[in-house]
């Protein structure tokens, strides 16, 4: 049965279909059921396993909300989300910790930006302490810096475990890749999967992450942007050198670039992870240079926004590319924070891919970005700290979806 034919009789299989079983999609389904217990919600996940992409390939850090523009969705939802996520982990027996972190200025030139971060953190309601060199050394004697910001509420958890627990609380269909969407005003949405299954729903929520712009186009909507995949490559320290790092250590970020820079994190497993950088991936799920999908790459290269973005950030991009291709260059960059390491101390670790929304003018979408259309809510930019903020993001999306459902019901009643 085609998606179009499925709408003719309008016999719904569920109230809401959530496309994408990552941590944001699962949290949205959970929030919908909590807000409206009788609601029938189905999550469609294209992979056979959960947390295969952004939800399971990250540094496992629960961000506190230091970096984000005061008043932005990222600032508000990260602060709230960090508290809610820690509570969720405690209630569901998911390992987590709250070690705090250091943001380290490695030169006097970075001190003004460090002070600005402290002011931003306080405006966002995040408790911080400004430390001198001697105080910083008490926390991280192996780390080089002239001053640091101690962020007290930064935590850690296994986001994959959070996703799997959320999946136990909702209805998830795995191996269900969406290939067609038919939406009719007043009738709802019909979604067809690669297996030929058709689901009819009153509303659709697009939480497809790396493929969210593609799903929007399948629904007949112009997302007004393009998802550009950036691969973040990690190393880990040799176990015998793990003593060089005690906790979570971040550099002062470049305010013109939406990435936090290469940082040092002692994971819950005791391993020290170093990274990530940020390089253009040659596929939306391109976790190394050997993964190339010509159609996806051609689509990205044909997008004017990509070239305008590259022109704006060519210097930073060239440095990221060099550090991807040269382990020596990557090591040299890490030595700014951790001068005691050698190239042989770094061992390969799994990479992740960040779904970054880019506007046609080359601007990087900085905040979470939702677009509402009839019967539909699209989540078109939800990179870090989306995992941290997944629970309140889910509540935000759920509220918008319930509004869409109310409108659809009124539209149907008026027919």
UniProtKB/TrEMBL annotation:
Q: One matching Pfam family, short form?
A: DAO
Molecular function terms, GO-annotated? oxidoreductase activity
Question: What enzyme class is recorded for this protein?
Answer: oxidoreductase
Question: What SUPFAM superfamilies does its record include?
Answer: FAD/NAD(P)-binding domain
- Keywords on this record? FAD, Flavoprotein, Oxidoreductase
Cofactor dependence is on: FAD
Q: Where is the FAD dependent oxidoreductase domain?
A: 15-400
What Enzyme Commission number(s) appear in the record? Answer: 1.1.3.-
Q: NCBIfam families from the entry?
A: PRK11728.1
UniProt record similarity statement: Belongs to the L2HGDH family.
Query: By what name is this protein known?
Result: L-2-hydroxyglutarate oxidase
Organism in which the protein naturally occurs: Streptomyces millisiae
């Amino acid at each position: 049965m085609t998606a179009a034919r499925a709408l003719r009789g309008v016999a719904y299989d569920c109230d809401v279909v959530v496309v994408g079983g990552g941590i944001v999609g699962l949290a949205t389904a959970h929030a919908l059921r909590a807000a409206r217990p009788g609601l029938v919600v189905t999550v469609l996940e294209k992979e056979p396993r959960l947390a295969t992409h952004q939800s399971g390939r990250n540094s496992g850090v629960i961000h506190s909300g230091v970096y984000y523009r005061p008043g932005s969705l990222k600032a508000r939802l990260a602060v709230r989300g960090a508290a809610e996520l820690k509570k969720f982990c405690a209630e569901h027996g998911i390992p987590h910790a709250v070690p705090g972190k250091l943001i380290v200025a490695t030169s006097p030139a970075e001190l003004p930006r460090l002070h600005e971060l402290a002011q931003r953190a306080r405006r966002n309601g995040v408790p911080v302490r400004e430390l001198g060199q001697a105080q910083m050394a008490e926390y991280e004697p192996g780390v080089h810096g002239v001053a640091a910001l101690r962020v007290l509420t930064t935590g850690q958890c296994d986001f994959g475990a959070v996703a799997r627990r959320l999946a136990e609380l909702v209805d998830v269909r795995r191996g269900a890749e969406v290939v067609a969407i038919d939406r009719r005003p007043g009738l709802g949405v019909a979604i067809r999967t690669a297996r030929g299954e058709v689901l009819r729903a009153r509303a659709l929520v697009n939480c497809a992450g790396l493929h969210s712009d593609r799903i929007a186009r399948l629904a007949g909507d112009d997302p007004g942007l393009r998802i550009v995949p950036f691969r973040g490559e990690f190393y880990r320290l040799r176990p015998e050198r793990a003593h060089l790092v005690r906790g979570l250590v971040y550099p002062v970020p470049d305010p013109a670039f939406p990435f936090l820079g290469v940082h040092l994190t002692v994971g819950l497993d005791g391993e020290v992870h170093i990274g990530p950088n940020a390089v253009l991936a040659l596929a939306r799920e391109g976790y190394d240079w050997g993964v190339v999908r010509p159609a996806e790459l051609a689509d990205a290269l044909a997008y004017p926004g990509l070239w305008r973005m590259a022109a704006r950030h060519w210097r930073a991009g060239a440095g990221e590319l060099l550090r991807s291709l040269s382990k020596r260059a990557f090591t040299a960059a890490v030595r700014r924070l951790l001068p005691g390491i050698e190239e042989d101390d770094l061992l390969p670790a799994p990479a992740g891919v960040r779904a970054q929304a880019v506007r046609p003018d080359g601007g990087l979408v900085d905040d979470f970005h939702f677009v509402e259309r009839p019967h539909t809510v699209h989540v078109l930019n939800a990179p870090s700290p989306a995992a941290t903020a997944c629970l309140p993001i889910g509540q935000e999306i759920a509220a918008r979806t319930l509004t869409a459902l109310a409108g659809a019901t009124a539209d149907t009643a008026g027919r």
